[in-house]
């Protein structure tokens, strides 16, 4: 009996412990609620690519200082301690010490222990490569900043697309659920009519085919909704299984993105981020040409060296009586490139050709950006027109389906005509949803191409 009670108490304790851990997990699991703008702001700070781009800018700032620091004073020092466990022996002629000529005497030079140290100050006085390097630091920073802006644009576009796709999936599930309920009711009603001998079996089978197809589409849409949430979470930079609630709906969001004034907006191509990145590449190539030319110039460095040495038969280097001997050197070093058998010239010509390639790429980028803007403007204008068309098509499809349903149940129409009208309605519903999504995504693409915002450290 005692063992039975112990077993019961142990089971109860394990249950309480498991329940407590599960409750703690539920409490610590985060959930989020977003409007689209809130999702964009959150994603720009937390998206994985955005965070990497921010780190890249920070790294570039450190690289900039690394370049500058190479021309600033460099101080180094070292301390050496030596203890000869067995001192080396040297043979000297014995006659030096009064011995017989032709014989040698073994002697040991120096002390058993010695301590020495040096400190050196190096200063770059002139180096053409260093001057070019310092001038290139600004371009290096611009490259990383523009790369971050490009990343932010891509992240924003991904978030908007993922957010809108979740709304589309939710709306699609809702519409399909209503369609399934409606067709199921028609199926059940027709089945009863058939059982009473007032309808053909084909009518029942035709509705059953439509119902089964809708149920399959509904199941698929529910799975797609789950995947859409995971894609959104990934674009936001949060775990894919995090619970997220969206407070907007697809229709109202599409209306917010319905902006005819954007079609007339223009910016200089030179302010487009892709053009700026290509321009940075051309500027970097130009700097490499100057760098190769600068390598043909002399370089001049100066240095100051100070050192000390102490000698003793035992370790007395911290005693006040210990003697130290010092030395100091001041000097300069001039390095003059004289002849390289055409090596420097070949390298310079290579960099010059790379610069010319970069200029060609810049020209190509300018024309490509113009084409992309015109194409994006055309796509956005079409999406606005198509959105209005699909709304009208849905209204027509609803009226046609309603008329065919009345005719069918009054015995004036066939099940085939009703099924065809229903398929037309279902297609119109999905096409309207897709047209809403296209309005949102095409506007985002056009806005990115026309975005001339400057770099911000706050994002």
TrEMBL record:
Q: What is its main location?
A: membrane
Give the Gene3D superfamilies listed for this entry.
Outer membrane efflux proteins (OEP) (1.20.1600.10)
One Gene Ontology cellular component annotation held by this UniProt entry: efflux pump complex
Q: Where is this protein localized, as stated in its record?
A: Cell outer membrane
Which InterPro entries does the entry mention? OMP_efflux, TolC-like
Tell me which domain of life the UniProt entry assigns to the organism this sequence originates from. Bacteria
Q: What is this protein called in UniProt?
A: TolC family protein
Taxonomic placement? Bacteria, Pseudomonadati, Bacteroidota, Flavobacteriia, Flavobacteriales
């Amino acid at each position: 009996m005692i063992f039975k009670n112990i077993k019961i108490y142990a089971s109860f304790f394990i249950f309480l412990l498991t329940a407590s851990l599960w409750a703690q997990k539920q409490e610590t699991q985060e959930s989020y609620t977003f409007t689209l703008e809130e999702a964009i702001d959150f994603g720009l700070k937390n998206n994985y690519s955005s965070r990497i781009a921010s780190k890249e800018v920070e790294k570039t700032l450190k690289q900039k200082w690394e370049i500058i620091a190479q021309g600033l004073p460099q101080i180094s020092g070292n301390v050496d301690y030596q203890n000869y466990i067995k001192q080396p022996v040297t043979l000297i002629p014995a006659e030096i010490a009064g011995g017989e000529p032709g014989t040698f005497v073994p002697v040991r030079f120096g002390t058993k222990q010695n301590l020495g140290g040096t400190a050196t100050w190096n200063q770059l006085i002139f180096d053409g490569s260093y001057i070019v390097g310092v001038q290139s630091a600004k371009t290096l920073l611009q490259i990383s900043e523009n790369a971050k802006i490009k990343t932010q644009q891509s992240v924003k576009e991904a978030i908007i697309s993922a957010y809108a796709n979740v709304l589309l999936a939710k709306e699609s599930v809702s519409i399909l659920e209503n369609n399934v309920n409606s067709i199921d009711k028609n199926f059940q009603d027709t089945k009863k009519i058939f059982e009473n001998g007032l309808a053909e079996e084909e009518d029942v089978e035709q509705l059953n085919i439509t119902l089964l197809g809708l149920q399959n589409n509904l199941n698929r849409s529910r799975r797609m909704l789950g995947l859409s949430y995971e894609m959104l979470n990934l674009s936001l930079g949060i775990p894919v299984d995090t619970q997220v609630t969206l407070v907007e709906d697809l229709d109202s969001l599409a209306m917010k993105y319905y902006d005819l004034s954007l079609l007339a907006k223009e910016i200089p191509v030179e302010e487009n981020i892709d053009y700026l990145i290509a321009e940075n590449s051309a500027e970097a190539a130009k700097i490499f040409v100057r760098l190769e030319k600068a390598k043909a110039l002399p370089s001049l460095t100066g240095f100051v060296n100070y050192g000390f040495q102490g000698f003793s038969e035992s370790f007395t280097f911290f005693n006040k009586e210990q003697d130290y001997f010092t030395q100091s050197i001041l000097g300069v070093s001039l390095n003059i490139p004289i002849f390289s058998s055409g090596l420097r010239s070949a390298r310079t010509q290579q960099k010059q050709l790379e610069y010319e390639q970069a200029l060609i790429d810049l020209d190509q980028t300018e024309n490509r950006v113009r084409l992309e803007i015109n194409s994006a403007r055309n796509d956005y204008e079409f999406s606005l027109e198509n959105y209005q068309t699909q709304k009208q098509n849905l209204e027509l499809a609803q009226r046609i389906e309603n008329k065919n349903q009345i005719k069918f149940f009054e015995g004036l129409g066939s099940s085939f005509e009703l099924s065809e009208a229903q398929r037309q309605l279902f297609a119109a519903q999905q096409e309207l949803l897709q047209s809403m999504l296209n309005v949102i995504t095409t506007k985002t693409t056009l806005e990115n191409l026309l975005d001339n915002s400057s770099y911000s450290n706050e994002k």
